[in-house]
Amino acid sequence: MRAGQLPLAARAAALLRALTIALAAAAPTLAAADAVIYPSVVPGRALTFPADYGSHPAYRTEWWYVTGWLYTATGAPLGFQITFFRTRPGVAEGNPSALAARQLLIAHAAISDPGRGRPWHDERIRRAGLGLAEARVGDTDVRVGDWSLRRDGNAYQARVPAADFSLDLEFTAGAPPMLNGDSGYSRKGPEAGAASEYYSVPHLAVSGRITRGGGGERVHGEAWLDHEWSSEYLDPQAVGWDWIGIDLDDGGAIMAFRIRGANDTVRWSGGTVREADGRVRALAPGEVRFAPLRTWRSPHTGVLYPVAMRVTAGAHDLELAPLLDDQENDTRLSTGAIYWEGAVRARERGAIVGRGYLELTGYGARLRLR
Q: Tell me, what CATH number does 296's domain have?
């Protein structure tokens, strides 16, 4: 290295420090000019479709989240996740420039591959507008660069040409959305304001094509879609959450979560069960419990995760085991978070009864959504 030349990482750090100082100096002016009031999520609002399939740009945070199991022609199992986030940062809203970042769009995608032993993962972040990214109001149609998820009738199409892999999948719904909580109002903490509007679409039939490591193949399987939007998802004492979405083999479905506070205390919990006959019931906090069965420490970040869980959700008592331990997602280049997002098998009374995904956030550091 020549004298006076900084390594790339050091130059990037110096640039970030300079930008942080500049933004801090401008903060009072920005706050005065761009202070926004986000709408609150309140009970009693009826979800309306197809409008609520689309974006809700006034709220602070929103995501469309698809996870599932795929099978190759030889029957080899794979997990996958595709997530599109929209966030309203609340700055520059009075700036008429098309360059103002009034909305940010972020996308994550991964394939969990037991044959590889770790996931294929990629991420994108763009400001909305200028043809870079968009989340349409009125129906699901979200795009970040050349990554996209859109709804057409009872089917969704996802196109994710990532750096080292790609997903080109169609998801077909066989039933209407499952409204979580109180008709879509999903409480997330002791205070009523910590809540989201939330529905799920379980048992999506999947078909399409994937590539990884340069080779492509046809796949089929089953998936789960979540769509949530909120302005205050976590209360100030929450550090993260554990969540499951399980497609049961009998046609039923289970969504359950717990919001964790410091020292693994439980701030709130809840869920929804859809039985095989179509009956849907919301779960009260006392009906949902998560108990770690086994932990795994990431060799990449050092974070310790409870990758095998026992989850009680109403009358169901599930034991969840991961398709593979290493399903960690390091998204510090986009959302700033490190979390575990993994395909799991669900057993009840010793028999496999379903498959789905387990999400573990806030284990390395407190999760911040703002």
A: 2.40.370.10
